[in-house]
Specification:
heterodimer, A: about 55% helix, B: alpha/beta, D-Maltodextrin-Binding Protein, domain 2, six-stranded mixed β-sheet
Chain lengths: ~475, ~280
């Protein structure tokens, strides 16, 4: 049970602890108040009893000296004057005892008649009276009875005439005490009624960020949450530090994931590249043989029309195979000519009519030195492929923008088109061969581009956001080769 | 300064009250001092002030009522002359009838007579006669009260009991009203009281009187009279007598009589005290 409690979420544990603390505090304060109110009540009663008893005793002395019973009766009755018989005060009766412990006069003569012995009514008082003879004022609280007696000797000239007794009932003494207990408990209940919901709200509010954080961290091995999935905690306390650490961890995890994905993708593309290159080489050799054989056969002559027709069919097919294989075989290193600014301008001139035909706006920014030590053919092909792609992807009346810039030993080609974005699934296979997202495309353009960039040790990045797709190619320029 | 102001204010108050009310009241004339015992009119409050205002106005001479605890104080002062008149009990009148002159006799329930009531607690039905009170606690009003002391002792003597040892305990209350309260509260088992006081209190304080009941009552005795001392001048005597007798003829006087539960004051008739005198002769005091 206790372990179950400690296993509870902070969402419940913090308010529960708070509630427990509030309840304990409220009840201990109530207990102190109740204890104090009992003391005050007791002291007030005893003080007022002593004052009253002393006053009555002083006034009684002359009447007892003169045997004036009526005046004595009026005096002992005085505290009850104007109080209805079912009064709630603790004073029950006042009576005067002779030296022989007979009732001389009492405030309730019907209950405590004159001249009757006191042990008839209060035997415990009678027993204790003998022990307290000489004292000024005594409080007798018999354990067996529910009465409390304040005993005052009536003295005239050092001679004790009689004994005055004020009789209080414990029960009616307890009544105001219980009333104060009840009112204290009511106040305690109201305080709890106000504090507990506040505490509950506060506790849950305190626990909420911690609970969210724990939930997100729980899911981490199987699922990597995004940074903005939980409300940011704005304070610089320990929890704030924990949140900072969590964000740092998320950042590095995301980075690691991206890195892993990039590595897997580029490895896959490299494998595909090597495979296609070796297949292309394997095909190219017999293909060249077959084409030569076909050519030789045609040159011999004496072939009927039907055979000639079949041979033409075979030759065209084999040429198509050679074109395709040639397209797969991307070879940048064999190209000798360096890139000149004219190459870039040529592309511009080639593009313009195509863009016009497709009703596209064209923005061009070219900033390159007259020559750059990179293979001109590769760069031309990269530019043509990317811009072609952009023209096909752009919406009608859309925008094509590209820039070729040499900056800080890097040639940067940036091609942007306004068009629908590339989905995550498409992005995954974007640079693979024979993957096309346009009607009529053979799916080799981006594959070739990727291979060319890779061979020049550059990198190609794609960003796809709403209505804009951007390809950025960065190619390092070896300055030593530039000098060469 | 404050004392001067206080005295000044008192004078103004006197002027405001006395001049219009008393008209030509001669403030230099010494007031007629009339004594009253607490025995009959216990704590009458403003009643006495209103009565003295009334008499002052009617007599054109200041009248002042003086309250005393016992009849003996009243008779002493009346004989000395510090009081000119007094409302006394039948017994002091009879014992001092040579020195007191009957001024008026109050008429209660259309008769100038009253009784002594022997009363006990309304809850106690065992007491049927004074002889049932042996060993009980008894409340006397005072030793010169005819109805509250003389009569019960007379009854006991008639039954051959010794009044001094018959009761277990006796005490004086100094007023009929307090005797009734003593019985009603249970302090005393029984008491003897003036029938006029008991019946008046039954109207004014039924919650007290209804806790008591009349056990027996005496025969008729002359009502306690208002008497004048020998030092009162004849003229004052007549004026005071006429004013008192005429009280029931004007609304203000009538209302005062009504508050005292009396019908009127009558001319004195010595004959009504004969029964009391006869009884006193039988009981040597």
């Amino acid at each position: 049970m206790i372990i179950n409690f400690f296993n509870l979420s902070f969402k419940y544990k913090i308010p529960l602890w708070g509630s427990l603390l509030i309840i304990l505090t409220t009840f201990s304060i109530s207990l102190v108040l109740i204890y104090r109110s009992y003391n005050i009540l007791e002291n007030t009663l005893l003080n007022s009893a002593q004052n009253l008893g002393f006053t009555i005793a002083q006034t009684l002395a002359p009447t007892l000296l003169h045997d004036d019973i009526w005046r004595a009766f009026e005096i002992v009755k005085a505290p009850f004057h104007n109080i209805p018989s079912n009064h709630s005060g603790a004073l029950e009766s006042v009576f005067v005892l002779s030296i022989e412990h007979q009732i001389l006069v009492s405030s309730q003569p019907k209950k405590l008649p004159m001249l009757s012995p006191v042990n008839q009514f209060f035997p415990e008082l009678d027993k204790k009276l003998n022990q307290v003879h000489n004292q000024i004022i005594t409080i007798i609280e018999p354990s067996s009875s529910k009465q409390l007696f304040v005993v005052i000797p009536v003295i005239d000239n050092n001679k004790q005439l009689a004994t005055l007794v004020l009789n209080y009932s414990q029960e009616s003494l307890n009544k105001p005490f219980f009333q104060s207990v009840i009112s204290t408990l009511i106040i305690c209940f109201i305080v709890l009624l106000i504090l507990l919901p506040i505490n509950w709200y506060w506790g849950q509010h305190m626990a909420l960020p911690l609970v969210q954080l724990a939930k997100k961290m729980d899911s981490i091995p199987s699922f990597l949450p995004k940074k903005d999935e939980i409300d940011h905690y704005n304070y610089d306390d320990e929890l704030g530090h924990l949140f900072d650490a969590y964000y740092r961890m998320l950042d590095s995890l995301h980075e690691k994931e991206l890195l892993e994905q990039g590595i897997i993708k580029s490895e896959r593309l490299a494998v595909v590249g090597r495979l296609t290159a070796s297949i292309a080489h394997e095909i190219n050799n017999p293909l060249a043989g077959m084409l030569t054989a076909l050519d030789t056969l045609k040159q011999r002559g004496n072939l009927d029309d039907r055979t000639l027709h079949t041979l033409g069919l075979l030759e065209r097919g084999l040429l198509q195979v050679r074109d395709t294989v040639a397209a797969l075989l991307v070879e940048a290193r064999h190209q000798k000519r360096n890139l000149s600014k004219q190459d870039v301008d040529d592309i511009k001139n080639l593009i313009k009519p195509m863009a016009n035909k497709a009703n596209l706006r064209l923005e061009i920014n070219i900033n390159v030195p007259p020559t750059l030590p990179v293979p001109a053919g590769s760069i031309r092909q990269i530019l043509m492929n990317l811009i072609n792609n952009a023209i096909q992807s752009a919406n009608t009346n859309g925008l094509i923008s590209y820039s070729v810039i040499f900056d800080n030993n890097h040639l940067i080609i940036d091609v942007i088109n306004s068009g629908s974005c590339i989905s995550a699934e498409q992005m995954h296979h974007l640079f693979e061969p024979f993957v096309s997202y346009h009607e009529g495309g053979h799916g080799l353009g981006l594959w070739v581009t990727y291979q060319l960039v890779n061979q020049m040790e550059g990198k190609i990045e794609v960003e796809s956001s709403d209505n804009q797709v951007r390809f950025t190619v960065t190619i390092p320029i070896n300055s030593s080769s530039n000098e060469r | 300064m404050f004392l001067y102001l206080k005295r000044y204010v008192r004078w103004i108050a006197l002027l405001i009250f006395l001049v219009p009310v008393t008209g030509l009241a001669d403030t230099n004339t010494p007031p007629i001092r009339i004594g009253l015992a607490a025995v009959v009119l216990d704590r009458p409050g403003v009643l006495l002030d209103d009565w003295s205002d009334y008499l002052t106005k009617e007599l054109n001479q200041p009248v002042k009522f003086v309250q005393r605890r016992s009849y003996s104080e009243l008779t002493d002062e009346l004989e000395k002359g510090s009081l000119q008149a007094s409302w006394v009990c039948t017994y002091p009148y009879i014992t001092h009838r040579d020195t007191f002159r009957l001024l008026v006799i109050p008429v209660f329930k259309n008769q100038p007579i009253y009784h002594s009531y022997l009363i006990a607690s309304a809850n106690n039905n065992t007491i049927k006669d004074i002889s049932d009170l042996q060993g009980k606690v008894f409340a006397y009003t005072e030793s010169e009260s005819f109805s509250g002391y003389i009569i019960p002792r007379y009854w006991l003597e008639k039954l051959n009991f010794n009044p001094d040892s018959f009761f277990r305990m006796t005490f004086f209350t100094w007023s009929h009203k307090d005797s009734i309260i003593a019985v009603s509260d249970g302090l005393a088992d029984a008491a003897a009281v003036d029938s006029y006081v008991w019946e008046s209190m039954q109207k004014d304080f039924p919650e007290i009187v209804n806790k008591t009941r009349i056990v027996t009552q005496s025969k008729d005795f002359g009502f306690p009279p208002i008497v004048a001392g020998l030092k009162m001048t004849k003229a004052t005597f007549l004026r005071l007598q006429t004013t008192l007798i005429n009280m029931n003829r004007d609304p203000e006087g009538k209302s005062l009589l009504h508050r005292m539960h009396l019908d009127r004051f009558d001319m004195p008739d010595y004959k009504i005290y004969k029964t009391a005198i006869k009884l006193l002769e039988k009981t040597p005091q």
